[in-house]
Specification:
heterodimer, A: mainly alpha, 11 helices, 0% strand, B: 335 residues, alpha/beta, Alpha-Beta Plaits, 6-stranded mixed β-sheet, 4-stranded antiparallel β-sheet, 14 strands, 33% helix
Chain lengths: 252, 335
């Protein structure tokens, strides 16, 4: 099938390009590990009496994984801007390659990289006392994938609309901080006052983080799990549809 | 072969872009036909609408108004079929810098549905035709400007398109590389490929194009073969450069206008340009007239008409004076 074939070709291309960029790989691996090593120890003093390192990291690690999915998705537009300005996207758009594949190739490649980083972080975290729940982890992969695709499609489409780095960076950075702070990524939002908890319910990332925590704890029946999927899956469909239509019309 | 449909035909093609001060009409009704096997040029100053026209014909930009068919298919309604039959080399090229030439060519060919086994001999063939053999297995970012440009063209023709679009193919190339690329494009044409190119190099249009249109402000100003267009100007051009004698110094315009052999006369800056039937016969007369009017002359040139004369005559402006125009040797002339 043409869509699958084209997507595979472009997926392969982006993956090879990423692997040939050692600086990028180094930063990609070191960022989540730095969170783990330099942030987790601080949390001990915030947790309630009697909390072991294990329970702290059980709350914190799902947050890092959601953060990774969110951030790697949000940053994918930077590559789009670069390729737009280098004429690469235009070169692909003149070929009969399926439009959706031109969008999905780099996106899936970024997702593969994200899961590789995730695996490294989870492996490292077990060293810090993180207790693995394999079933929950499997569902979590799905949740993180949906989150990453959503943010990535949003970011790429925004890049195609803005076309240049400064306004794109302003939009992405302007959204990153409030979305991250209102999602309880690093500390649970339940620590906050009522107005924050109310506001968080308008933030899709909040549902992803809550869902990820429940899944890591092995609590599949927790309403946070189905709520996360109910918020993120429709959002993903809408954003990808929008991004594809931007791609078709893009005045690159 | 005359019953073959045109490679390209457009009818009243238009495009406008929204802007803060209202819509900007980039293309205002371009109607043209390109025959199969031609090298067809869109010549004009920057901002004339050449690139916008090309981007519509290559399905990159939705058509604003009018109709266009490329390789027998309607660009607006059958973009997929059009894409299968055209190649496009943008000003930027767009090869992957971190990949080798061969890797780039393989991916490009596979996006057109070819298999690696089919592509290997094709890549070898292109390496010969476009002289890529020495560097095709090196990473693109290590290539020189001329090498990159040849790779860009190879990417544009890997799938043997019926029509090849080239947007400013030789911008940034030195004269030697430019001449080489011209030769290679002529070989491609000899192989049956129709080539459409935009350029703001007069010499390029003159040397390379079988037929061309001069585009200005989104409209076709004139169309024909380079030779026809130049003949239409009729006769020779004499360019007089005035000495800087300060404001109010006589420039002899009134005197020259009265001379019976002067067909056309114009002044821009310190240059007077006049067209006469027989340049060498007119020169002594012109000299005498200028002398009698005590006009300070720095230099005088006699030249056969160029495409710039054609442009000048149609638009009242020189192509070399329109914004960042380009000298005959290809060096950018600052405005």
């Amino acid at each position: 099938m043409k869509l699958v074939r084209d997507t595979w070709l472009l997926f392969h291309r982006y993956t090879v390009q990423m692997l040939r960029n050692p600086v990028w790989l180094f930063v990609g691996f070191s960022t989540p590990l730095l969170y783990l090593v330099l942030f987790t120890p601080l949390l001990k003093h915030f947790s309630g009496p009697g909390a072991t390192s294990g329970t702290v990291i059980d709350v914190f690690l799902p947050g890092i994984l959601a953060l990774l999915a969110f951030a790697s998705g949000m940053s994918s537009g930077f590559g789009t801007i670069f390729e737009l300005q280098a004429g690469v996207i235009e070169r692909f758009r003149v070929t009969p390659a399926s439009r959706l594949s031109i969008l999905m190739g780099p996106l899936l490649s970024g997702m593969l990289m994200m899961f590789v980083f995730d695996a490294v972080v989870v492996a490292a975290a077990t060293g810090f006392g993180f207790s693995l729940d394999w079933g929950g982890l499997a569902v979590l992969v799905l949740l993180l994938g949906v989150l990453m695709v959503t943010m990535s499609a949003f970011s790429v489409a925004t890049a195609l609309v803005t076309k240049e780095i400064s306004s794109f960076a302003a939009i992405v950075n302007g959204l990153n901080l409030p979305l991250l702070l209102l999602a309880g990524v690093l500390l649970p939002i339940s620590f906050g006052p009522t107005w924050m908890r109310v506001l968080a319910h308008f933030n899709p990332l909040y549902y992803a983080v809550e869902g990820a925590r429940a899944l890591c704890a092995g609590a599949y029946g927790n309403p946070a799990v189905w709520q996360a999927f109910c918020v993120l899956v429709p959002l993903c469909v809408v954003v990808v549809a929008w991004a594809t239509s931007v791609f078709r019309r893009a005045v690159a | 072969m005359t019953d073959r449909p045109p490679a390209i035909s457009t009818d009243g093609l238009t495009k406008s872009f929204p802007s803060r001060t209202g819509p900007v009409e980039a293309v205002r009704g371009i109607t043209l036909a390109v025959e199969p096997g031609e090298i067809f040029g869109l010549l004009g100053p920057n901002g004339a609408g050449k690139t916008t026209t090309m981007r519509m014909l290559t399905t990159l930009l939705p058509i604003g108004g009018g109709r266009a068919t490329v390789a027998g298919f309607d660009v607006g309604r059958q973009p997929e079929q059009v894409r299968n039959r055209i190649g496009y080399v943008s000003q930027l090229g767009g090869a992957d810098e971190l990949a080798t030439g061969t890797e780039n060519l393989l991916l490009q060919g596979r996006l057109y549905g070819a298999t690696p086994a089919e592509l290997r001999p094709r890549i070898a063939e292109l390496a010969t035709v476009l002289d890529l053999a020495g560097f095709v297995d090196r990473r693109v970012k290590t290539l020189s400007g001329g090498q990159r440009r040849r790779l860009d063209v190879a990417l544009g023709i890997i799938h043997r398109p019926d029509v090849l679009f080239l947007d400013e193919p030789t911008t940034g190339l030195d004269p030697q590389n430019r001449a080489n690329l011209w030769e290679q494009l002529e070989e491609l044409r000899a192989g049956g490929t129709t080539i459409v190119l935009t350029t703001h190099y007069l010499e390029e249009a003159d040397v390379l194009c079988d037929r061309l249109v001069i585009v200005d402000h989104g409209r076709i100003v004139v169309e024909g073969t380079p030779r026809d267009l130049k003949q239409r100007v009729a006769g020779d051009a004499i360019v007089i450069t005035l000495r800087d004698d300060g404001a109010g110094a006589p420039d002899g315009m009134d005197l020259l206008a009265a001379e019976p052999y002067v067909r056309e006369l114009s002044r821009s800056g310190d240059q007077i340009r006049l067209y006469v039937e027989d340049g060498s016969a007119a020169l002594p007369h012109v000299l005498r007239v200028l002398d009698s009017g005590q006009v300070g002359v720095r230099s005088m040139n006699l030249s056969e008409p160029t495409l710039d004369d054609v442009f000048l005559r149609q638009t009242g402006r020189s192509l070399r004076d329109t914004g960042d125009s380009v000298g005959a040797d290809g060096t950018e002339v600052a405005a």
